Amino acid sequence: MIARREFVVRCSAAAAAFAIVGCASLVVHTVPAPQGRVSLALADYPELAREGGVLSLLPEAESDPIFVLALGGGSFAALSSRCTHRGCTVDAEATRLVCPCHGSTFGRDGLVLRGPAEHPLPRYHTVVTGGRLLIDLRRNA
Ligand code: FES
């Protein structure tokens, strides 16, 4: 049995900016999330080793992926991919997240840079301990 199911999703045309991760597609990693908590061994995700890195996760029992973004200095943001305007799935670009439906744009911290969305992307509580990134999907940051 495969512990972590992976599949590839389409990136927006603008995702050419993803040259920094070496391809035009972003792999979505399905991960366990017991009691709404995700625990990642950072050594298993080299894309998070440098500032600007991004990872897409689909926690089990969740319907939408989340993005984990390396903010630098050992800090991370874990953001919902669901646009707060009307619920489309946003695309992650190198420096921002963009909704393909009506163009809302969010910063890597989830804050609205451009509407029509009026509210930031939900951001989940994260903590790094013992080489692991813990994401609590039940707590907002
Ligand atoms: S659903 Fe994202 S901008 Fe409208």
Short description:
The protein has 141 residues and is mainly β. It has a single domain (6-67, 83-140), classed as Rieske Iron-sulfur Protein (3-layer Sandwich), CATH 2.102.10.
Task: Please describe the topology of this protein.
Layout lengths: L5 E4 L16 E6 L5 E5 L12 E6 L6 E7 L2 E6 L10 E2 L3 E3 L6 E3 L4 E3 L8 E7 L2 E9 L1
Parallel strand pairs: 2-4
Antiparallel strand pairs: 1-2, 3-12, 4-5, 5-6, 6-11, 7-8, 8-9, 9-10, 11-12
This protein binds FE2/S2 (inorganic) cluster.
Note the beta-strand portion. Answer: 35-45%
CATH class: Mainly Beta
Mean pLDDT metric: 84
Distance between the termini: 34 Å
Order of helices and strands: EEEEEEEEEEEE
Largest sheet properties: 8 strands, mixed
Number of helices: 0
Q: What is the approximate shape?
A: globular
- Classify the helix fraction into a percent range: under 10%
Question: How many structural domains in the coordinates?
Answer: 1
Can you name the CATH architecture? 3-layer Sandwich
CATH topology: Rieske Iron-sulfur Protein
| Rg on CA atoms, Å | 14 Å
How many β-strands, per DSSP? 12
Low-confidence stretches: 1-24
Structural class: mainly beta
Order of strands, main sheet, comes to 1-2-4-5-6-11-12-3
Bound molecules: FE2/S2 (inorganic) cluster
Features:
mainly beta; 141 residues; four-stranded antiparallel sheet; 0% helix; globular; Rieske Iron-sulfur Protein; eight-stranded mixed sheet; 43% strand; binds FE2/S2 (inorganic) cluster; disordered N terminus; single chain
